[in-house]
Design goal:
Blueprint (H helix, E strand, L loop, with lengths): L1 H33 L1
Length: 35
C-alpha cells in the first residue's frame, strides 16, 4: 500500500510539473508572438 501511494504521489507530482512547464512554454510563445 505504501508503494502504491508513493507512486501516486510521484505521478501527481509529474503531472503538476508538466503542467507548469506547459504554462511556461505557453507564456514564452505569447511573449515571442507579441514582442
Amino acid at each position: 500500500a505504501s508503494a502504491e501511494s508513493f507512486n501516486a504521489k510521484i505521478k501527481a507530482f509529474r503531472t503538476q510539473f508538466r503542467g507548469v512547464k506547459n504554462v511556461e512554454f505557453f507564456l514564452y510563445r505569447l511573449t515571442q508572438l507579441y514582442a
